[in-house]
């Protein structure tokens, strides 16, 4: 085989390999176990409706509506799950480092739970993968 033929074969193979790497299919999402979220308004100070002192209340608690929106966003954007429906997180969850609770979610019409783990007193938390 001549040098020109060998060069042509090598170039063709390189071009084919390059085209094979250029696929329209998106790369699969990396396996993620938890995602840390820092919502802008997820935690608020709790006080009684009559204007009582916050010391009689549990302290800072997560706003469940904000958390539900943040969990939905994390499931669709970070975990890349399709068909994320209702997300329900419990009210009055204290912002306490190390505490955990669960939110219920609908994924593809199936009920699942995600574990929320508080990772600091500043309102940061991790959102586990749906189980």
Automatic annotation (TrEMBL):
Source superkingdom: Bacteria
Renumbered to this chain, the signal peptide range is 1-20
Q: Where is the composition biased (Low complexity)?
A: 25-59
Q: Where is the DUF4333 domain?
A: 59-123
Record-linked Pfam families: DUF4333
InterPro entries documented for this protein = DUF4333
Region annotated Disordered, chain positions? 25-65
**What protein name applies here?**
DUF4333 domain-containing protein
What species is this protein from? Amycolatopsis thailandensis
Task: List the lineage, top down.
Answer: Bacteria, Bacillati, Actinomycetota, Actinomycetes, Pseudonocardiales
């Amino acid at each position: 085989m001549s040098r020109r033929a060998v060069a042509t074969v090598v170039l063709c193979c390189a071009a084919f390999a390059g085209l094979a790497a250029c696929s329209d299919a998106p790369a699969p999402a990396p396996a993620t176990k938890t995602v840390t979220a820092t919502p802008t308004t997820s935690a608020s100070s709790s006080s009684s409706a009559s204007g009582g002192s916050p010391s009689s209340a549990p302290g800072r608690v997560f706003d469940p509506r904000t958390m539900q929106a943040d969990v939905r966003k994390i499931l669709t954007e970070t975990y890349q799950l399709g068909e994320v429906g209702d997300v329900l997180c419990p009210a009055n969850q204290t912002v306490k480092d190390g505490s955990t609770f669960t939110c219920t979610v609908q994924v593809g019409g199936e009920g699942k739970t995600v574990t929320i783990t508080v990772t600091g007193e500043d309102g940061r938390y991790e959102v586990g993968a749906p189980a």
